[in-house]
Amino acid sequence: MKHVLALFVLLIFSTSIHAKDNTIFTPVSDLFLAVSNFDHAKMRAAVDDSFLLLEHGEVWTIDDFVNVVKPADYIRTNYFSVINSRVEGNVAFINYWNKANFKTPIKTVTFIG
Prior knowledge:
By secondary structure, this protein is an alpha+beta fold. The chain has a single domain, classed as Nuclear Transport Factor 2, Chain: A (Roll). It contains three helices and five strands, in the order ααββαβββ. Helix 1 packs antiparallel against helix 2. The termini are far apart. Keywords: Signal. This is DUF4440 domain-containing protein.
């Protein structure tokens, strides 16, 4: 009986961690959805002024990121895999693997970041 109870507690605890991680990741998914839609206002709304994106050895602010997102004739689809995350006070640190497919009528290009 103790094993069943321990397993039940573990499942409940695991579910709450998973739900918490999804909530932590929401700003990231909202940000990249706005990127896919070329929506600069929603990009800015997804994060605050402390936002930093570490991209291939470069540090980008939200202004840097907005400046490189320009309307184009492709459809962007984002895929994520969270490596880890933690919250310290009101700041979340999220490490994730990102893959984006860019599809045009002629070809599809994949970017892994």
